[in-house]
């Protein structure tokens, strides 16, 4: 049984766009690089050819992964996720007890996680710790840096 990939509608769209780019532009570009490297002659000592073949393998691997993710996607409707209990798709406003600051995270599936955009995976320590919690709950999360304490200020 293949792994299910929890995605938002936005995540599905991003993966579809990436797949289109990989199958179109990226494949054509790497094919051209391989063609040009072959034209240089001896392939046994051709660094450009080796690099282009490595890039081709990476692109084909990513295409296969993205196709698998789309095929096994479980779409989370962010509108339905809104409620008084934290679930995947929610945006959660927390008060960090240690740093005395508010932070906002969106709980998403691992395929969409991006800490730079404050999108955390439902499989991460913080994501797991927040799931099922309610407004005003105090939550302690065991993280590599130690125990982190948060108060849930808002769930949307």
Gross morphology is elongated
The total of helices stands at: 4
Strand content: 25-35%
Query: Which structural class fits the helix and strand makeup?
Result: alpha/beta
Question: What are the low-pLDDT stretches, counting only 5+ consecutive residues below 50?
Answer: none
Largest sheet: 5 strands, mixed
Round the Cα radius of gyration to an integer and report it: 21 Å
Within the largest sheet, what's the order of strands? 5-4-3-7-6
Number of strands: 7
Between the first and last Cα atoms, what is the distance in angstroms? Answer: 33 Å
Give helix % range.
Answer: 40-55%
Q: Note the run of SSEs as H and E.
A: EHHEHEEEHEE
Instruction: Kindly report the average pLDDT value.
Output: 91
Outline the fold blueprint:
Layout (H helix, E strand, L loop, with lengths): L4 E4 H30 L8 H25 L1 E4 L1 H4 L9 E6 L4 E8 L10 E3 L3 H6 L7 E6 L2 E10 L1
Parallel strand pairs: 1-2, 4-5
Antiparallel strand pairs: 3-4, 3-7, 6-7
Can you describe what's shown?
This protein is of the alpha/beta class and 156 residues long. It contains four helices and seven strands. The chain has helices at residues 9-38, 47-71, 78-81, 125-130, and strands at 5-8, 73-76, 91-96, 101-108, 119-121, 138-143, 146-155. The strands form two sheets. It has a five-stranded mixed beta sheet with strand order 5-4-3-7-6. Helix 1 (9-38) packs antiparallel against helix 2. It is elongated and about 70 Å long. The mean pLDDT is 91.
């Amino acid at each position: 049984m293949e792994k299910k990939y929890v995605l938002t509608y936005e995540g599905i769209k991003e993966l579809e766009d990436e797949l289109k780019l990989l199958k179109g532009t990226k494949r054509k570009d790497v094919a051209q690089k391989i063609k040009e490297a072959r034209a240089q002659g001896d392939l046994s000592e051709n660094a450009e050819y080796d690099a282009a073949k490595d890039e081709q393998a990476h692109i084909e691997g990513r295409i296969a992964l993205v196709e698998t993710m789309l095929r096994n996607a479980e779409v989370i409707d962010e509108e339905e996720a809104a409620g008084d209990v934290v679930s995947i798709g929610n945006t959660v406003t927390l008060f960090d007890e240690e740093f005395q600051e508010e932070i906002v995270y969106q709980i998403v599936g691992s395929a969409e996680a991006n800490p730079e955009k404050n999108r955390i995976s439902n499989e991460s320590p913080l994501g797991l710790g927040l799931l099922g919690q309610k407004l005003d709950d105090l939550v302690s999360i065991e993280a590599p840096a130690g125990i982190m304490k948060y108060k849930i200020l808002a769930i949307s």
